[in-house]
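Need the bound structure for ribose-5-phosphate, inputs here:
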Amino acid sequence: MKLLAGNANQDLAAAIAKRLDTHVANAMVHRFSDSEVRVEINENVRGEDVFVIQSTSCPANETLMELLIMIDALSRASASRITAVIPYFGYARQDRKVGPRTPITAKLVANLITTAGADRVLTIDLHAGQVQGFFDIPTDNLYAVKEMEKHIRAAHAGQMDKILVVSPDTGGVVRARSLSKRLENSDLAIVDKRRPEPGKAEVMNIIGNVAGRHCILFDDIVDSGGTLVQAATALKKEGATSVSAYVTHAVLSGDAVARIENAEDLDRLVVTDTIGNLDQRVGAKRIETVSVDRLIGEAIRRIANEESISSLFD
Ligand code: R5P
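Answer from helper R.:
Posting the output first, comments after.
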């Protein structure tokens, strides 16, 4: 088995390699002077089971091209199987036609990855479950919920009976219920969120009784932070004791970190390292990061050994 990494998640790739007691193979992923991606794999991969770790995160077009070109290089170098390990699968939010003459980028990117030569995909918390079916190759969609559960239990020790899981929008109810089930079937509340335009969230109502509860907002992506900040304010207004957000993918674009740091009603944001922008969060008082290295490392080990990975979904 060999691990390779593009430039998107080098820290995470190193942590996964450590878990697997191996190293990240020597590969050069640079640019030509005109900015085209230049890849050279400096180790023999003929006949190897290769895992390429690369999130298609910001800058999305750059990281995506790096992934495609690395897969192409590996396929031409006769790797026996190529697994694209994409901790954060970008372009997933355009997963259906939202209006006339609009694209479905999640399907387009899935096609590109398959055409480049990937044999399978391993990812975490796809924006919508059905995106798994956009790939015509085996695709495993892991969930970071177990790592979040551990953090919630440690951070709310002695107060678990006051926990209430909150879905930040109606589309996230299934995800929120999966967390609430793990937390002794805690109660659920839903934020009625509207988007007057892309990138702008507007909270309308809270559905459920949140007074006196420790609210856990559970989401897949924090991008501008607008959804979380507005939801936290609405929850506190309704009498919530505390509001913590647990979100897998820390997109955190623009001034999101400052927006969250200044949000008095949001007590804590816990994210994972599926996106390698860890520098952005250094020194942030409200933002904590839990790693998914164990989860991905174990999934890679099982795929390489042809073992079942279904217990990782429990
Ligand atoms: C939406 O469907 C997603 O699950 C997130 O709620 C959304 O992407 C968060 O965006 P922002 O942080 O910009 O409000």
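Comments: Residues 168-169, 171-172, 199, 201, 219-227 surround ribose-5-phosphate (CB under 6 Å). The chain has nine helices and 14 strands.
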